[in-house]
UniProtKB/TrEMBL annotation:
Cofactors: Mn(2+); Mg(2+)
First-level EC class: oxidoreductase
Alphabetic keyword roster: Manganese, Metal-binding, NAD, Oxidoreductase
EC number: 1.1.1.83
One Pfam family hit: Iso_dh
The name this protein goes by in its record: D-malate dehydrogenase (decarboxylating)
UniProt similarity note: Belongs to the isocitrate and isopropylmalate dehydrogenases family.
Start and end residues of each Isopropylmalate dehydrogenase-like domain: 7-354
InterPro entries in the record: ICDH/IPMDH (IPR050501), IsoCit/isopropylmalate_DH_CS (IPR019818), IsoPropMal-DH-like_dom (IPR024084), TTC_DH (IPR011829)
Amino acid sequence: MSIRPHRIAVIPGDGIGKEVVPAGLQVLDAAAARFDVPLEYEHFDFASADYWLAHGTMLPDDWFETLRGFDAIYFGAVGWPDVVPDHVSLWGSLIQFRRRFDQYISLRPCRLLPGIPSPLVGRAPGDIDFVVVRENTEGEYSSIGGKIFHDTDREVVVQQTVMTRTGVDRVLRYAFELASRRERRKITSATKSNGITISMPYWDERFAAMGEQFPEVERDQFHIDILAANFVLHPDWFDVVVASNLFGDILSDLGPACTGTIAVAPSANINPDGLFPSLFEPVHGSAPDIAGKGIANPIGQIWCGAMMLDHLGHPDASSAILAAIDTVLERAEPGILTPDVGGGGTTSSLTRAIADAVADAS
Ligand code: NAI
Ligand code: MG
């Protein structure tokens, strides 16, 4: 049987993106070989400072047509502030992808890994293992509003939150479906209906309605303030956490922070309908301070590869990568690990060890 290969657009971007993306591909190749996953890569040099220097823009005019036919985008990091201001590089590339490809889910797994110290005292691997599902297109981040009576005592500023039934239901459905596939089958909703008394009760109403379609999923909800506190105090309470754009933005930084270093944290921007490619990128940026030294930790990027394989319908290959990351971190060989996690190794030593562990997966 011949299977159509998954077509992956590979965009390393800037700085350590150019080091961790090849590392991630090395591990993807190991998983593809071990589990018979047909992957086909095409490499692009746009969304980078080099491209900006050569062309004066971050993206070619036809980027949308070029990328839209791919099954996924495997992205490194964009940003090189010495050359392009950060708001220009980010809004000129990544934000365009997220918007035009209607990547309405932002997904951030938060899992404490072996050998990575948590800033939360007394937490061990297994204690923290949840996913933040953030609405990524509407909510509090709308551009509806304005300012009148500039520079007078009557100055008025208004910015509207926008919640549509379509927008709210589609993120809730995705989160419930995710929860129903996970072992604990638990979902927590971030609300603030005691303070934001129109849109948040609406969010709660839709959450309850969606929950009725998923009776197997246990649900609870917290106001955002105490929810943030509970991320720190009781991270073991959570499995899938679903939130509006603003609350999700905050939780999706707080969650990974509870699991240690951002260098190992992955994220995905997903269009679940499959109308457009989804984008998989580590949480970290281009790290100009260590770029070019060959010591960037590749785990965040490698984990993104696991998320991408899961998204493309290969959960076994995905789990094998996660298990390989755990195995290598548990071994804690100082010559293998990168300096940010206490080793004296390099991007390539850590990558090779993980790729070898994937190849050996049973
Ligand atoms: P950053 O994440 O690039 O670096 C923050 C700190 O973490 C640095 O000390 C860096 O060395 C360290 N670090 C990050 N990733 C690491 C890794 N894989 N291994 C070891 N250490 C690692 O954030 P920063 O410095 O604020 O931003 C640098 C550039 O990246 C800026 O241009 C910024 O706009 C861009 N950026 C891009 C993002 C993206 O593409 N989604 C996300 C965050 C920042
Ligand atoms: Mg953020």
